[in-house]
Amino acid sequence: MAGEDAVMATNDDAAQCKRFAVEKGYWQDPYISLLVPKGKANHAPEINKGYYARVTSIRILIQKFVETTNRECQIVSLGAGSDTTYWCLKEQGLNPKSYIEMDFLAVTSRKCQQIKNKKALLDKLATEDGDIMWSKSEVHAGDYHLVSADLRQLSEVVKKLSDCGLDRSLPTLFMAECVLVYIDVKYTDQLIHWISENVPTAMFINYEQVNMGDKFGQVMIDNLKTRDCYLHGVAACQSLQTQKDRFINQGWTGASAIDMLSVYTHLPQADVQRVEKLEFLDERELLEQLYSHYCLVWAHQDPTNVGLKDLSLY
């Protein structure tokens, strides 16, 4: 993954965009300000609305997964960055039996320090025996694990999941937000295939680019290149079909994919109407163009009929 620093910087950009949108009132997240420093820039309404659709739709699917499994489940966040989902789920009483976050060592090292230094974050990690295992870049605390790994190195990923006590018999949700697109498809295929072979009851939520073969997609690719940021996995982002195929071809039972334009129409419309009033949108065409180049994908395999095949945004 050439330009690893540039890829890690995309986490900071996305996290600051999310914090800005939270401060604008798009959704609630009492923990994001503890993990993400305030950004210097304002963000256009279409950017805020894009993050609203992204965060809200992923939250809906996560909640449905946790409720369907009666919390007898695990969540693995790949390339978790500054994500706050663990704390938000715990606040709602929707935390799974185990929540594992994985990212580059530089990212997890910083997050370790942030958790240590923020009481509100640390308190949520409280375990029955009070035992929290810390290292410079990793945390193991009851139901929460933060570990460093390079997602291109499957053996390293598998070892770290084992270190976290991953129970392969439990329904497990894997999720990635704009992560796989930075990794060559041969590596993501290995990872997706390993999950399908080794975690029988599983769901995967993936959010990233789609329809990247047109002019808008090429401009996006070129702009990222100027930041030394390369979309090595863009081959899987050519269409909604290629997004689904990456899972089906690696042994998953089924997969759904919809662009964010469609996602927006399937979100709770009362909340959408609230959001529409937050900021005036000058160029709706720009928002629609942006939405049509990102998608939400969810794949499943459910041999014991837990109910994962029925989970949907609709």
Automatic annotation (TrEMBL):
GO terms for molecular function: protein C-terminal leucine carboxyl O-methyltransferase activity. It is an enzyme of class 2 (transferase). It comes from the Eukaryota. It catalyses: [phosphatase 2A protein]-C-terminal L-leucine + S-adenosyl-L-methionine = [phosphatase 2A protein]-C-terminal L-leucine methyl ester + S-adenosyl-L-homocysteine. S-adenosyl-L-methionine binds at residues 54, 79, 150-151, 177. Its EC number is 2.1.1.233. Keywords: Methyltransferase, S-adenosyl-L-methionine, Transferase. GO terms for biological process: methylation; regulation of signal transduction. GO terms for cellular component: cytosol. Belongs to the methyltransferase superfamily. LCMT family. Methylates the carboxyl group of the C-terminal leucine residue of protein phosphatase 2A catalytic subunits to form alpha-leucine ester residues. PANTHER family: LEUCINE CARBOXYL METHYLTRANSFERASE (PTHR13600), LEUCINE CARBOXYL METHYLTRANSFERASE 1 (PTHR13600:SF33). This is Leucine carboxyl methyltransferase 1. It comes from Littorina saxatilis. The lineage of its organism: Eukaryota, Metazoa, Spiralia, Lophotrochozoa, Mollusca.
